[in-house]
């Protein structure tokens, strides 16, 4: 609809930006279709992300360091020597299960022919069942037929792949003591 | 050619500045806005890769600790420290240069 414009009235003369008006109407149209509140959007810049990643890197280093520290402290913890058997108590191929280092974990001591006394943790390295000694020189896990060499503790057959933890023994005044467990 | 764009407000995307002969070296005016954006994006990528490696290290350390194997924990912590130092260098070294221009 044409407007009544008095050419002598300078106040009423204003340039009309048709292109700008068209663009504005176009923008308005898609903004109506996607009314996303841009002003309320919390903008995260690349640099914010970079600093966040750097902080994460530091946190992960601290976590790894803390784990190493805990490992170092627990490694140095003193384990009390536990008496497990008397000298001569076990005949050849004789074996005995004992609590070590506390009542919640057990070891197995075996008198192997030609090798003498050896001791291992009796917890299978597959799924933690208790292993038993067989007089053919093997330790057998009955849960999944895992087999370990009684002379070395190495896994021979079945699902286990890691050797049994070795328990160090010490003899004092005719008594055999378990003194330390070595994970391998 | 009049292309349709999903968001008409989006700025036109230009090719990032390239080095002479298309090599990896920075081209002229590489400290302009697109170049600086590319540098920060590259920093983000490198630090993210380091972060993923450190995530693996902390997972392995936890596994070793819970398995009772404490021999390698110090080495894992050292590797994580080296990763953090590299991430610090990657983040801070180009920062002054980027922000001056």
Largest sheet of chain B: none
Gyration radius from CA atoms of chain A, angstroms: 39 Å
Q: Cα distance, first to last residue of chain B?
A: 35 Å
Percent helix of chain A, as a range, is 25-40%
Please outline the helices and strands:
The complex is a heterodimer of chains A (184) and B (101).
Chain A: H1 18-33, H2 46-75, E1 82-86, E2 95-99, E3 106-112, E4 116-121, E5 132-134, E6 138-141, E7 146-149, E8 155-157, E9 166-172, E10 175-182
Chain B: H1 33-66, H2 73-92, H3 95-100
Tell me what you see in this structure.
The complex is a heterodimer of chains A (184) and B (101). By secondary structure, chain A is an alpha+beta fold. Chain A is built from two helices and ten strands, in the order ααββββββββββ. Chain A has a four-stranded antiparallel beta sheet, with no helix packed on it. In chain A, strands 1-10-9 form a three-stranded antiparallel beta sheet, with no helix packed on it. In chain A, a hairpin with a 5-residue loop joins β7 and β8 (155-157). Chain A is elongated and about 110 Å long. Chain B is built from three helices and no strands. Chain B has helices at residues 33-66, 73-92, 95-100. In chain B, α1 runs antiparallel to α2. The mean pLDDT of chain B is 83. At the A-B interface, α1 and α2 of A face α1 and α2 of B.
Keywords:
heterodimer, A: 184 residues, alpha+beta, 4-stranded antiparallel sheet, 3-stranded antiparallel sheet, 2 helices, 10 strands, B: 101 residues, mainly alpha, 3 helices, 59% helix
Summarize the structure.
The complex is a heterodimer of chains A (184) and B (101). Chain A contains two helices and ten strands. Chain A has 184 residues and is α+β, with helices and mostly antiparallel strands.
């Amino acid at each position: 609809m044409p407007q009544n414009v008095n050419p002598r009235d300078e106040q009423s003369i204003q340039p009309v930006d048709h292109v700008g008006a068209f663009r504005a109407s176009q923008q308005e149209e898609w903004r109506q279709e996607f009314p996303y509140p841009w002003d309320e959007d919390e903008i995260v810049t690349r640099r914010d992300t970079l600093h966040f990643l750097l902080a994460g890197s530091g946190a992960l280093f601290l976590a790894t360091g803390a784990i190493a520290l805990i490992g170092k402290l627990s490694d140095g913890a003193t384990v009390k020597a536990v008496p497990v058997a008397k000298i001569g108590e076990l005949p050849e191929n004789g074996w005995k299960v004992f609590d070590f280092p506390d009542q919640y974990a057990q070891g197995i001591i075996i008198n192997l022919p030609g090798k003498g006394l050896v001791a291992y943790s009796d917890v299978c390295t597959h799924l933690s069942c208790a292993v038993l000694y067989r007089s053919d020189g093997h330790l057998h896990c009955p849960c999944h037929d895992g087999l370990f060499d009684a002379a070395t503790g190495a896994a021979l057959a079945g699902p286990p792949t890691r050797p049994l933890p070795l328990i160090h023994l010490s003899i004092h005044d005719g008594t055999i003591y378990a003194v330390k467990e070595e994970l391998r | 050619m009049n292309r349709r764009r999903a968001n008409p407000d989006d700025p036109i995307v230009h090719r990032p500045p390239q080095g002479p002969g298309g090599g990896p070296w920075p081209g002229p005016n590489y400290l302009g806005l697109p170049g600086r954006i590319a540098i920060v994006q590259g920093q983000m990528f490198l630090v993210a890769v380091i972060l993923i490696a450190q995530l693996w290290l902390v997972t392995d350390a936890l596994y070793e600790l819970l398995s009772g194997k404490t021999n390698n924990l110090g080495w894992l912590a050292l590797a994580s420290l080296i990763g953090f130092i590299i991430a610090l260098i990657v983040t801070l070294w180009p920062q002054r240069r980027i922000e001056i221009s």
